[in-house]
Specification:
Largest sheet: 5 strands, antiparallel
CATH class: Alpha Beta
Number of helices: 3
Strand content: 15-25%
Strand order of the largest sheet: 1-2-3-5-4
CATH topology: HIT family, subunit A
Order of helices and strands: HEEEHEEH
CATH architecture: 2-Layer Sandwich
Bound molecules: guanosine-5'-monophosphate, zinc ion
Structural class: alpha+beta
Number of domains: 1
């Protein structure tokens, strides 16, 4: 529990929320400022700041919960699609620094914008960035 964290307060029921799902490890609530009706956020109960801090086991379990909630949303809201979004770091748009996954129901021709301007690589650039990340990744793949 982090005393300055709004999501920890929601988990501790100090701040109320509309809960879709809760178990020992996770809570899924309706977002207070939804991008679309039904927009929910899924959070581990343990205070973890972002994707760089989260344990893989927690992330795996979280995604399992996300899949179930997504299926329930599709059936109930009859949405045509759904965005799963996770912002880590201020630069990425994170505003609540307690790891969470957004589930945003989408409808054909809705006005929700989750978009970016496409960029391009210079000659050989994609290949060299891929090689550099691949090299770094090796240490995270160790058993
Ligand atoms: P982020 O920008 O960090 O990826 O997402 C944080 C989300 O938490 C935002 O979509 C915001 O609307 C939501 N949020 C912030 N404070 C509260 C709150 O007190 N209650 C609920 N239910 N959602 C919140
Ligand atoms: Zn927290």
């Amino acid at each position: 529990m982090n005393n300055n964290c709004i999501f920890c307060k929601i988990i501790g029921n100090e701040i109320s929320s509309f809960t879709l799902y809760e178990d020992d490890d996770f809570k899924v609530i309706m977002d207070i400022s939804p991008a679309a009706k039904g927009h929910a956020v899924l959070m581990p109960k343990k205070h973890i700041a972002n994707v760089f801090e989260v344990e893989e086991e927690v992330a795996s379990k979280a995604f399992g919960v996300a899949v179930k909630v997504a299926k329930a949303m599709k059936e109930e809201l009859k949405c045509d699609g759904l965005n799963i979004l996770q912002n880590s770091g201020e630069a990425a748009g994170q505003t609540v620094f307690h790891f969470h996954i957004h589930l945003i129901p989408r409808f054909k021709n809705d006005s929700v914008q989750i978009t970016w301007a496409c960029k391009s690589y210079g000659e050989g650039e994609a290949e060299s960035i891929a090689a550099a990340i691949r090299k770094r990744l090796a240490k995270f793949l160790l058993p």
